[in-house]
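I hope you will forgive my troubling you with a question about protein structure. I am sending you one protein, given as its amino acid sequence and as whole-number tokens for its backbone shapes. Thank you for your consideration; the sequence and its tokens are set out here:
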Amino acid sequence: MPLAAIDHYFVYARDLEASRRFYEQVLGFEVGVRPPFPFKGYWLYLDGKARVHLGEAESSPGQTDYLGEHDAREHGHTGSLDHVAFQASGFREFRAKLDALGVEYRHREVPQFKLQQLFVKDPDGVTLELNFPSEDG
């Protein structure tokens, strides 16, 4: 059975509400249905699918029971992750939105693939790569 697609990723958020706001207001995710787990968190949806799961960085007994132990220190991690990439549309409008919100980003162009890229960091330092086909911009 081959892998088909990335389902979601989970972020241990140092400030759960700040992370939720970032994903909603900056990237356009919507908070959606989440099972009644024994710890605080959010499932954030794109096109009807939960793509980002947020949980608190500070462990609680319910979270530890469900997810296992994790290192909540600022520099604790489960592995090395450079970035997560999303396909996107509306390059000019999205870049203007980032500017209006004062969100820092890096812009790259990949001419061989007719691709515009914006790189932003979420409140926990996860780099998000947003890929826009050039003909969209």
Remarks:
- The chain has a mean pLDDT of 84.
